[in-house]
Design brief:
Layout: E1 6-7, H1 8-15, H2 19-31, E2 35-38, E3 41-44, H3 46-67, H4 69-73, H5 82-85, E4 95-97, H6 109-116, E5 120-125, H7 132-141, E6 145-151, H8 152-161, H9 163-170, E7 175-180, E8 190-193, E9 198-201, E10 213-216, H10 219-233, E11 236-238
Parallel strand pairs: 5-6, 6-7
Antiparallel strand pairs: 1-3, 2-3, 4-10, 5-8, 7-11, 8-9, 9-10
Helix pairs in contact: 7-9
């Protein structure tokens, strides 16, 4: 009813319960002043609307943690800013995927397709995998609008072992690379956002990356992920060449074009 008034048949269809089981609950809600009846149509009262508005974030957060309890209880959550941690329920319904440390994206081509087929992509890596450069270059060559953030350690590995690939990415007008100067463990291990999917990875309590990700296609989760990415983008410096930081004296910020 938080989404609007419902008739009794619609309520029965949504809850998939017999009418005889529903009526006592309807009666109780009416007696408590939480819903109002108009014929066969029911809507939230003002009090009911207030309580639902206050209770929903708590219930969503509880559901988020319950769905993947082991994952969340063993993760460093201080890499999530407090204003987003308070809205963790927006990740409700996320799927846990486990590609494994040695395989990265290879075992999940259906996940990769959500990024290679997108026109806009945001990526953050605070660990390094040897497939990251080729994956990023593939996106850049497809004229995907890409913003790519590295931790300082992962960028140093990228620039040391894959310098030519990095310069090729930087030569593309649709791609930008940034470096976050903080300690890698202070940021998520991975943020990957396309137009339709968000993939999130976090270090465990011991500071290790276990190769587990949360995947969601829900609009609320996508919006949450974009805010998390922007939080770190605003705290990163733009790379003008793989000789960073020597060649980027102005420390340019990213345009808000995604």
């Amino acid at each position: 009813m938080a989404e609007g008034p419902l008739n009794i048949d619609k309520i029965l269809d949504l809850l998939q319960i017999p009418r005889i089981s529903l009526l006592p609950h309807i009666k109780k809600l009416k007696e408590e002043g939480l819903i109002v009846q108009n014929g066969a149509v029911y809507r939230l009262s003002i009090i009911g609307d207030i309580l639902v508005t206050k209770a929903r974030p708590l219930l969503d957060a509880a559901s988020t943690f319950e769905d993947n309890n082991y994952f969340w209880s063993h993760r460093k959550l201080d890499s999530i800013p407090f204003h987003l941690l308070r809205r963790i329920g927006e990740l409700k319904g996320s799927q846990l995927v486990e590609p494994g440390l040695t395989h990265g994206f290879d075992l999940f081509p259906e996940t990769i397709n959500h990024f290679t087929g997108s026109s806009k992509v945001m990526l953050l890596f605070s660990y390094f995998h040897p497939q990251i450069p080729s994956f990023s270059l593939e996106l850049a060559k497809k004229d995907v609008k890409m913003q790519l953030i590295f931790s300082r350690d992962s960028f140093d590995r990228f620039s040391g072992d894959f310098r030519d690939t990095g310069e090729e990415i930087l030569a593309k007008k649709n791609a930008s690379i940034f470096v976050h100067a903080g300690i890698p463990l202070e940021i998520p291990s991975l943020i990957a956002i396309s137009e339709t999917a968000v993939l999130l990875g976090f270090f465990n309590q011991k500071g290790r990356f276990e190769g587990q990700y949360l995947l969601s296609f829900e609009p609320r989760a996508l919006a949450w992920g974009r805010e998390l990415f922007k939080y770190y983008l605003d705290r990163s410096e733009k790379v003008c060449s793989m000789n960073f930081p020597d060649s980027s004296p102005h420390n340019q910020k990213a345009p808000d074009d995604l």
